[in-house]
Amino acid sequence: MTITRLAEEARLSGAVVHGGLVWLAGQVADDATLGTEGQTADILAQIDALLAQAGTDKTRLLSVTVVLADITEAPAMNRAWDAWLDPAHKPARMTIQAPLVDSAWRVEITGVAALAAPTQDDAVSAAASMP
Predict the structure, then answer these.
(1) What is the mean pLDDT of the chain?
(2) N or C: which end of the chain has fewer CB within 10 A?
(3) What is the mean pLDDT of residues 21-27?
(4) Does the pLDDT of residue 95 top 70, yes or no?
């Protein structure tokens, strides 16, 4: 099976696609000056972009882990989460408190999503390309 690495950086890939799943690295805000709600919205937009690059979207998220530097900021994180979440496709989620690598970061989010199910056209194309 092929392994595809997306948004590669010096030490990590932003996401890795393998076995019908997209594994997201811990995503942090591009703008660390934002508060918890703003950082969460920033991260969720990054997750949308990575999932789109992988060929899927947030409706296919299976599991999400949210790490907060300060658990008392959960209501602020949840405001951004609730505005972003598709209520018909809620993933399993865990929220914990832990120190983050950069003290300016308030939130880090990781998760696993399923790739979009192959369409009938995909199956026909794959069969046609077989020798």
Answers:
(1) 92
(2) C
(3) 98
(4) yes
Domains of the chain are 4-115 (3.30.1330.40)
Distances (CA, A) of 98 to 59, 65, 88, 119: 27, 12, 30, 41
Residues 44, 84 contacting (CB under 8 angstroms): yes
> 11 near 30, Cβ under 8 Å?
no
* Model confidence pLDDT, tens digit, residues 44-54: 999 999 999 99
Mean pLDDT value across residues 55-63:
98
Of 110, 82, 83, which is closest to residue 96 (Cα–Cα)? 110
Judging by beta carbons within 10 Å of its beta carbon (0-12, 13-18, 19+), is residue 121 exposed, middle or buried? exposed
Mean pLDDT of all residues in 81-110: 98
The reported pTM is 0.88
